[in-house]
Amino acid sequence: MILAGGKGRRMGGVDKGLQVIAGRPMITWVLDRFAPQVDELLINANQSIPRYEHLGYRVVRDQVEGFAGPLAGLERALAMAAHELVVTAPCDSPFLPVNLVARLHAGLRDARAELAVARTGEQPHPVFCLCQRRLHADLTSYLASGGRKIDAWYASLNVIEVCFDDDADAFSNINTADELRAHEADPRFGSGPTSRLT
What is the per-residue pLDDT for 30? Predict the structure, then answer.
């Protein structure tokens, strides 16, 4: 599940995933790296639905009202995905690791954990997580109680943090218009597959 369901408040209230960087909507850069790693891809969005659907993947809205954050997107993924393991990544991290899923899966398997979270240094990145679908009931209960923080939700679960210190820059995200402009010339963009979103 690519998480694109936020309001983009720090970027002026725009739909962040559709903001153009290096000539293409930001989410398409994420798709280039993320889609080859998974068997099924869903997009969580709460606005601009037709434009996201134009990418060719199933788009699902939050069931929790009020732009409740990434956990609301994860809840939909756990409810609707066809596979027993679900992985999430945000729409604003265009350089995410091309081996993200494989490494999270290895960590989950080796630790016999319920959920694997990417970490660089001492900083976990909970929106980059791989978890078992059977956690859906637990997450639904947490959201119903008013909980919204990812790390607070998984604090009681069997979690493994998977180190990505060798690729720490891959988790940089773009939150503001200034950061968007600053990344325009980043050589990591290069030339990628042509976007289907115009």
Answer: 96
Contact 17, 91 (CB under 8 A): yes
How many Cβ atoms are within 10 Å of 22's Cβ, its own excluded? 17
> Cα(128)–Cα(197) distance, rounded to whole angstroms?
24
| CATH code of the domain made up of 2-180 | 3.90.550.10
Structure-block tokens of residue 104? 């999270």
Residue 194: the pLDDT is: 41
Q: Cβ(165)–Cβ(86) under 8 Å? A: no
Pick out the chain residues at pLDDT < 70: 6-13, 66-68, 191-198
Q: How far apart are CA 119 and CA 198, in angstroms?
A: 34
pLDDT reported for residue 103: 98
- The beta strands (E) that lie in the chain are given as 2-4, 20-21, 24-25, 42-45, 58-60, 85-90, 115-120, 123-132, 159-163
Helices (H), 120-174: 136-144, 150-154
Domain map of the chain by residue range?
Answer: 2-180
